[in-house]
Specification:
95 residues; alpha+beta; globular; four-stranded antiparallel beta sheet; Inhibitor I9 domain-containing protein; 26% strand
Length: 95
């Protein structure tokens, strides 16, 4: 079986009351808590879904509760079936 090439995907999460609670705090401490919470949540989702080393998380997007990750098409399809995930979109190159 030929190994698939990884591509950049954006993953957006379903409603999360804890994210909403932290998002509503506009203090520096609240922003720091939100950054930590989101990054850890995304890392755990990926670690629970895929083998270590089979993906590269590029960044978490705090403003929309999402993240960018380098994965294969098959992995993207797996993520689409995870209950916490709302949308998985491949990054589109602009010509």
């Amino acid at each position: 079986m030929a190994s698939e090439e990884s591509e950049l995907y954006f993953v957006f999460m379903n409603y999360d009351p804890e994210y909403e609670r932290l998002q509503s705090k506009r203090t520096k401490k609240g922003s720091y808590e939100l950054d930590l919470y989101i990054s850890k949540k995304h890392d755990e989702l990926l670690a629970n879904t895929f083998e270590p080393g089979s993906y590269i998380k590029r960044l978490s997007l705090v403003i929309v509760d999402g993240f960018a990750v380098e994965i294969t098409d098959d992995q993207a399809n797996v993520l689409r079936s995870v209950k916490e995930v709302r949308i998985v979109e491949k990054n589109q190159e602009l010509a």
